[in-house]
Write a structure and sequence with these properties.
CATH class of one domain: Alpha Beta
Order of helices and strands: HEEEHEHEH
CATH architecture of one domain: 2-Layer Sandwich
Distance between the termini: 72 Å
Structural class: alpha/beta
Radius of gyration: 32 Å
Largest sheet: 5 strands, mixed
Strand content: 5-15%
Number of strands: 5
Strand order of the largest sheet: 3-2-1-4-5
Shape: elongated
Helix content: 25-40%
Amino acid sequence: MAMNVSSGGGEEEVMSNINTTPLVDVMLVLLIIFLITVPVITQSIKVDLPDAVNQPTHTKPENIIIAVDKEGKVYWNTAPIDNDELLARLKEKAVIAPQPEVHIRGDKEVRYEFVGRVVVDCQRAGIVKVGFISQPEVGYAATLARQQG
């Protein structure tokens, strides 16, 4: 074992600097490893995804508006309706040419199960065009103001 003994009569200062060279070396090695492994991990099948387009809703009188509140109750325009009656009405409307569009307005706190049932009923009835109506995104300040008051 070695011991550092000062030859002078004064006390030596304690070294207060941290040697960061090993830390930088380790970080650069980790960076290189991540740069090499990320493309290998993110393998996926090449698909051509559709572009998202925000179009204003063109309300036509023949469009069917179905609303689902947060409890899961379904409304045809403003009248409450059960699932059997909804399917029957959708089948009636599906044979009309040109077929009307179905616009689903789901509450943001509704369970997806209830909205999914409406979509399945549209599919079973033969409805081709089903759309979801949403609120346009507002700024952060407006969102905070709405939440607070």
